Amino acid sequence: MATRRQVQTAVGAHLVGGLKAPDAETAMRTAAGVLGRHLRAVTDGETGDRSQWIFWQIGRLTAVDGIEVAGLSENPDTENEDYREFPQLAIDPSVTQLPPRALGYADAAEASYGVYRRLRDEGVIPPDVKFQVSIPTPYATVVAWVPVQTQAMFFPVYADAIAAEVRDIARAVDRDDLVIQYDVAVEFGVLTASFPAAGNLAEKQYIIEALQQALEDVPAGVERGLHLCYGDYKHRHFHAPEDLSVCVDLANGVGAAADFIHMPVDRENGRDPAYHEPLRDLSPVPRRLALGVIDYDGDPQRTRDLVAAASAGSGGMMFEVATECGMARIDERGPGGPTLERLLTLHAEVAAPVR
Fold it and tell me: For residues 219 and 168, is the Cβ–Cβ distance under 8 A?
């Protein structure tokens, strides 16, 4: 008796941002070489200063007159002790505007886009693979590095500066080539009471409206989306999610403003289909959904378990496979871990190509 062919739900691969490589060219060559048929967009790997996500913004901001480092914060309620102390920035009230391109994101994107164009012309990057620029939300840097007392004052200043960087990126990069991804992590720290935030900055509705505004700041014609994250230092969460309900709440909140959404899959809880059942409540369903089902330890069986649970729990929803966060710091958990090439190959082993 013939059996019904199982529908492939894992199709394509999404790169969150960081790739462990010495430079942008190596990062893009490696990713395209392993995953070219699976990719819709390639990142420059966020190499160099950007490999530590928002940490490099401390140096960028303290280069501005009126901003300096002023001690450490304490977050005693955070489950993961690695997140309990953060540097804090003293912001003088006179800082009402940041200099053009002070944050460095537009300069980095413009430099990497030249490399991307050359590699595409050489045939290394397939012609229909876009150039993805991943940028932390304004909320992330402000709430992480700025004391509660001055967060509300500095948030619009930094948000305006990020919006200006995004506009400059859209001027430097052909809009048909460009994908903008906002990295959303500190927001989850606040929503899980792991990090403090000032006043209404701690409210879910404020976070949703800030995300909507960031997405609307992306110029028309540019694909835009969100990477949702529960923290990634040493590839450990500051709070282990029990399911995807908070991610779905935020995704539904921003609605059609996001063309794509990436959600994390906890390597333990995510093996239970119930972890993924909130995906059935996505409304609207984004044009592209990516799930962090690729195990950071490179364990193929765990990865297959996570993919199977995502497929079953979501009710057969189509999704791209991804790691939970970037792959720039895959050696943080000690020696003996997988190489970048191995992790990229694992994407291809569990997902069908898009072309």
Answer: no
Longest dimension (CA), the chain: 77
Coil, strand or helix at 101: coil
Q: CA–CA separation, 216 vs 224, rounded Å? A: 9
Residues 133, 46: Cα–Cα separation, whole Å = 9
Residue type, 252: N
- Angstrom CA distances, 354 to 39, 44, 125, 129, 201, stand at 7, 21, 14, 11, 39
pLDDT classification of 95: cutoffs 50, 70, 90: very high
Which tokens in the block code for residue 331?
């050696």
Give the single-character DSSP code of 16: -
Q: Is the dihedral of CA 42, 275, 278, 214 positive or negative?
A: negative
pLDDT tens digit sequence for 153-196 = 999 999 999 999 999 999 999 999 999 999 999 999 999 988 89
Residues 185-201 as b/e (b if ≥16 CB within 10 A, e otherwise) read bbbbbbbbebbbbbeeb
- What's the CATH architecture for 12-350? Alpha-Beta Barrel (3.20)
Decide: helix, strand or coil at residue 198.
coil
pTM over 0.90: yes
